[in-house]
Design goal:
Strand content: 25-35%
CATH topology: Nucleoside Triphosphate Pyrophosphohydrolase
Number of helices: 4
Number of domains: 1
Helix content: 10-25%
CATH class: Alpha Beta
Strand order of the largest sheet: 4-1-6-5
Radius of gyration: 15 Å
Largest sheet: 4 strands, mixed
Structural class: alpha+beta
């Protein structure tokens, strides 16, 4: 694990690689979390997380699904790859001035389920299910999440 200072240097100098999880229910609604942390704090966003150094994509996917959703042992092969996206933010996790954040994001859609995932409230203060048309119409849903539905 990186120290806070090391992570800030990584954010300052390089893009981060992440996985976002597009979770749908049986009615086609999408799970969004209200972000507690920077960047994008205070907006609705799909769950996701950074890939760690030396972590395989499969291991990262399983860890992120557990950490963000409480879904243990979910495999990447159970999801549909939606593509590569770029996310740019003017701020960073540490609120350090003049340090922007750049993510390269691998987006995966989980198959529709009638069972709601168990949300974890350490990253998000609340969870919400919205139809794609609803989330596209809301100003408090982050533009990077809306990009998955355009």
């Amino acid at each position: 694990m990186l120290t806070r200072s090391d992570l800030l240097n990584v954010v300052r100098l390089t893009p981060l690689i992440a996985i976002d999880l597009i979770v749908s229910d049986a009615d086609g609604r999408v799970l969004l979390g209200h972000r507690r942390n920077r960047p994008a704090r205070g907006t609705w966003f799909v769950p996701g997380g950074r890939i760690r150094k030396h972590e395989t994509l499969d291991a990262a996917f399983t860890r992120i699904a557990d950490a963000e959703l409480g879904l243990m042992n979910l495999t990447r092969s159970a999801a549909r790859f939606e593509g590569v996206f770029e996310h740019h933010y003017s701020d960073n996790f540490a609120a350090e001035p003049h340090v922007s954040t750049h993510y390269i994001v691998l987006a995966y859609a989980l198959p529709p389920t009638s069972a709601a995932p168990i949300g974890r409230l350490d990253q998000h203060s609340a969870y919400l299910w919205l139809a794609p048309a609803e989330l596209l119409a809301r100003a408090d849903v982050h533009e990077n999440t809306k990009a998955y539905f355009r």
